[in-house]
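Pilot study result, target chain (414 residues):
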Amino acid sequence: MNNSDLLKELRIDRSAPPPAPSRTGLWIGLGSAAALLVLAVVGWAVFGRDDAVEVKTAQVTALDSAGGSASVLDATGYVVARRMATVSAKITGKVREVLIEEGQRVEAGQVMATLDPIDADAQRDLAASQLSASRSQINMVQAQLHEAEANADRLSGLVQQQLVSKAQYDQAIAARDALRAQLQTAQRNSQVAGSGLRIAAQGVDNTIVRAPFAGVVIAKAAQPGEIVSPLSAGGGFTRTGIGTIVDMDSLEVEVDVSEAYIGRVQPKMPVEAVLNAYPDWRIPAEVIAIIPTADRAKATVKVRIALKSKDPRIVPDMGVRVSFLEQEDKKAAAAAQATPRTQLPAAALRKDGEQDIVFVVHDRKAERRAVRLGGNLGDNRQVLAGVSAGEQVITEAPATLKDGDAVRVATGNN
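Predicted structure:
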C-alpha cells in the first residue's frame, strides 16, 4: 500500500450515523455534585455554627499607692463654691450698659455694668462749684485781713505818739482779729466743700459696678434700662443684682454623713471623689473639716472636702459620690507596695457558695477564677489575689455560664 492509499484511510466518513451517548459519565457527574453538597452541609454543621455565648467584659486595672486604700465610708453630696457673690450696685439707678455674659471670666476690679450717671454728675458739679466758691471766699478774707493787719500796725505807732486815740487803735485790732476768725471759717468751709466733692465723685464711681474678685459669671440678672437697687426698694420691678460670679478656685465638696458613722471620718483623711457626670474620673481629695453641728431633721453632720484637682469640668452644684479611704500605717503601706493589688467592677463578681469568683476571658473561653477581695472603691472592688492587671473579666453574661464555655465579646463592648 502506497502513501496515497494510507491518506484515504484517514478520511472521516461523514455519511456514517453518530455513535450513541454513554450514560456512565452522567451518573458520575450527579454523584460528585451530591457528595459536594453533603460535605458542605456537614462542614457548616461542624464549623459554621457559632455556639459561643455573647458577653460583656471589663479590664482589670492596677492600683497604685494612692488608690490602694479601701473605703471605710461612702457618701453623696454636691460641689459648692466658698466664694460666690451676686454683684449689685451700691446705689439705686437705671442700668445703662451690661458688659458681662454667662460663662465669661472676669478679673478683680473689671467693670461689669454701668448705671446712668446724670444725677451723680450733677451732684459732683455742684460740689465742685461750692468748693470753688469757698476758695474764693478765702482769697477775699485774706486780702481784707492783710489790710487790717497793716492798719493795726500803723495805728500801733501812732497811738504811742498820742496822735490817735486808744479807741481807734482798739477798733483796728478788733477788725483784724475778726478777719482772722473769718479766714479760719472760710478755710474750714473749703475743707468741707472738698470733702463734699470727694463724696460726689464717689457717687459717680458708684455708678460703675466692678467685680469684687476674679471668677466666672454664672448668671446675668439685669438688662439695660432696668432699675437696680441694693435694697430692692421697687419690689418685684427692681433688680437687686447685675450678675453672679463664682471663684472656681474655691470649689469644694460638701457631704452629709450620718451621725452613726461620723466617727469614721477624721480631718486630713484621704478621700476619692467621683462626679455623677464623669463616673470614670476619680478625683483625689482630702477632708478639710467636720462642721461641729448636726442636722436634727436628717440626723447628719456636714463634712467639707477639698478637691486636689482643679479642672474646668468641675462646676458648682454638681452631684458627687465620695469614698472616705482608710489611712494605712507604714507597715501596711510597705506590704501594699510589695504585693501588687488590682481592682475590677463589682458587676464582674459572682458567688459560688461562700467563695467569690469571676470569669476571665482566655482563648475565647470563660475561665473560672476564685478571687480574694479587699475593700470597696466606689463602683469597683479591690482584689488582693486571683486576677492580674490587664486581664478581661466578664461583667454581663447568662447565669448559666460555666467554666470552659466558648464566649464572644459583644460588639460595642466598653
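One observation from the pilot: The first strand starts at residue 53 and ends at 59. A full batch analysis is planned for the follow-on phase.
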